[in-house]
């Protein structure tokens, strides 16, 4: 079987006009024995895509950047060491595409934290020296540890966002809630991450409190997303006192930390509980923190990045079995729709994830 020697993609080389897509071509990365090549069918759009295109976290590593790390497609080539993927299988790829495979973290299902972990786009692969390119392309190649089989009864357009947003919220929730029924979890921010956090927390057996700044999403949270209670922090200044020592965990999924009263949340967390941040807001907001809020409540403040391959398999199975689907807007792949998705997401004008579909047809 022949494999592509040229990858087609929509990318960007101009941080000023970051949303304007331009067709580009490049050679695929050198294929390694542990690699899987994927023919891409669909790819979700993540806030990280916008931040990267805008060079929020630094300049691009190559002349053109191809974003997209919520990838679903068909495995068309597997390396000689690949054991769990077969040619023709529908698979997913999230934000990380390689790691050393040998360190303590890689050997303990925490490979996303490996110091040599390679991001799916705009990063340098340590094995080949090539700059990684993402999912708004005809094909992508990744190490087998990060290529995950998609359950047959999970629609592809939903699986894409689950590879990033779904795994990002599932990982800390699963660590905290698995096998521990009856815990109370607060999900802060009802957006691309938070709406899935509500659904997974409920499926994992928690009593779920949706927390937002206003009452705008109360009905949706309580009737469609699985929340048991709803808090609007701007509407009820005493909310933290009412919930004092009632939350076992707070999962922060917000897109902004402006005016965030972290100390109020710490009061609401019961001793031994935890605050976990998974949202990465665009900006440099500093959040005031009183040490007494940590000491007096025995509260842990943590962060969480994506999830492991083992967690991804469990997450996708739970999503398929319980029909935990992201709320998406589907757009057929085109220059126009790529630009629309990026520009609207940059304005937070989406409910709640964009997915560009028909990528394989577009690049025929």
Automatic annotation (TrEMBL):
InterPro entries recorded: ADH-like_C, ADH-like_N, ADH_Zn_CS, CAD-like, GroES-like_sf, NAD(P)-bd_dom_sf
Span of domain Alcohol dehydrogenase-like N-terminal: 33-152
All copies of domain Alcohol dehydrogenase-like C-terminal, residue ranges: 192-318
Alphabetized, the UniProt keywords read: Metal-binding, Oxidoreductase, Zinc
Alphabetized GO MF terms: oxidoreductase activity, acting on the CH-OH group of donors, NAD or NADP as acceptor; zinc ion binding
Q: Does this UniProt record's set of keywords contain Metal-binding?
A: yes
Tell me the superkingdom of the source: Eukaryota
Please tell me whether the keyword 4Fe-4S is annotated for this protein. no
Question: Which cofactors, if any, are listed as required?
Answer: Zn(2+)
Which family, according to UniProt? Belongs to the zinc-containing alcohol dehydrogenase family.
Protein name per the record: GroES-like protein
Q: What is the lineage of its organism?
A: Eukaryota, Fungi, Dikarya, Ascomycota, Saccharomycotina
